Amino acid sequence: MAGDGHAKEDMGPDSRPAPAPESPGASKPHRPPGYASKPHRPPGYAYEHFDRAAQLRRMLLFSLARWLMTVALACSIYALLWSFSSKTALTNDKKREFNGLIIGLSIGLGLNTASSIKAITAEVRWWLLSLGPWSPRESDLILQSENLSRLILLGCTSRRLIVRLFVAFFLLVNIASQVALAALGLTYNLNPADKVTVTKPGLVSVPDLSSIQTAKVLSSSNPSQAISALRYTANSYGLVALTYGFGVLSEVPQPGAIFNPDNNLTYCGGHNSCRYVFFEATTVNSSYYSMVATSRYVSTSASCQSWRIVRGGNGMQRSIVVGDANNTEFGPLPALNGPDQTLFMYDPEQPSGDTWSVVSAMEASSKEPWFYRCNVSVGPVQNAVVKEHLLGANLSRMAVSAIALQGYGASTTTGSSNSTARLQFQSYPAEAWFGSPQRGDVGGMGLMMAQFSAGVIAVTAQSNSNIVVPGLVPLKGVTVEIPHWSYVHLVLGLTVGLQLLFAVVALATTSRVQVRGHSHLAMASLLRPVLHGVSSRASAANGRQIASMLGASAQLSYVPSGRAGGYHVETDH
After folding, report:
1. Among 145, 196, 249, 407, which residue is least crowded by beta carbons within 10 Å?
2. b/e map 147-179, b = 16+ CB within 10 Å
3. Which phi and psi (to 5°) does residue 202 adopt?
4. Using CA atoms, how far apart are residues 312 and 366, in angstroms rounded to an integer?
5. So where does this one cross the membrane (predicted)?
6. At what angle do helices 485-510 and 161-184 cross, to 10 degrees?
7. What distance in Å separates the CA atoms of residue 90 and residue 87, rounded to the nearest whole number?
8. Which pLDDT value is given to residue 12?
9. Percent of the chain with pLDDT over 70
10. Is 298 helix (H, G, I), strand (E, B) or coil?
11. Which helix H or strand E contains 468, and what residues bound it?
12. Which one-letter DSSP state was computed for residue 380?
């Protein structure tokens, strides 16, 4: 520090090396007549004189180094919070890593801030000492004021306003720095992941997609795979899917997203297509349950043609004539339900496959009836890894025609039999979602059929029993949440900004006086003239006792030294 090299100015001439004595027999050098001898000067030292500019440069360098360390620690904490809060979820290992880093950096910032405040106090104390004179006890406590306990004792000992303001200011600064660091821990939260979590390879539970399981729909206690049971269950599941809702493709859950029953189950978009994303869950023997979205999905689509009905479109005629190039007649209709309803029809005897079928629809109306013919298809499961991820033939075949499937009940135009080999049909009123009139819009009708097919697959995946296969096990994840970044900016910004402000004020204040360092030798040299009369009697005395030995009327002053330009301590009685 600035005072370490100025001990010489108070050491006096006795500290200079004495000249070597001349031997009695030594001959003096011959000098020419008229030569005047110069007076003897003892050797000098470079640090005899106080260099104010050098002190300012040194203090500026040290203050800048302390401030840059604070900036580096504050930036590290900010980068750590930003990095971990931007992650969707953390594993327990990452959580421990975050806790270790944030605690370590916070401790480092706290120690550096406390050290900087202590250094500023140690510099400003010399300015305060120069405002004397002071009693020996006050002077002793001022010189120890960088110690927090001595700072408090100084405030209790001295009655001078400037001292109490000095003590109050640095006490508040120390307390504020610790409060700011404590508040930093309140700016972020570690919460269990409730939207997205992390996964690792292992065994998971996935739905059995080999077929539609009918036990949850039929009254029979024995699950049935009869064609009528499958058709009835498929149509029921398509209607149930309405309760889950349909979203847009931009809302498709990303891999790792935790299942939320409030979210939509299927998602639809352009080209009359819909998509269902498959989920995986922890096995039944796990200590916790979690179900997350995967990268696997299946898409359904429908392409339609439409014609206006030119005769019989009110839903009360056995047959209808559509307005195509040939005025084709279609009939007999399987049901006469009148206007304001849509009748969907599927003929099992017509060409179809495991993943596609042709479904017809008559949009009955007394004003604007329409007839549609649609090709409905379901695609392969994307990103499937094992065969258990694929759709069974029964499931895909039922899904594409489910909107028209009836299963049980009348299937012929006369309603007199229950033959499953004849036309399957379902009628939906215009007030229902799947009965809403499209008025010839092939895109709207195709999207409606794709929605129904995707809903069948989605509800089947939710309702069927699970099987255990290799997959990505969802883990218990945590997230770093920062509700208000402005609080982080405030805490770190004030910590960095106020330290810089205090350092600048300290430099401006202490540049007027000589700032001594922490060297005990330099301090002993400074105080030697004051303690000359105490001598060795005070070898076991404490500060209070030495102050009393100097006398009640003694006053110490830290004043400029005219000879060397520095400062020294003098005593007045």
Report:
1. 249
2. eeebbebbbebbeeeebeebbeebeebbeebee
3. 175, -165
4. 9
5. 59-81, 161-186, 485-508
6. 150
7. 7
8. 41
9. 86
10. strand
11. strand 466-474
12. P
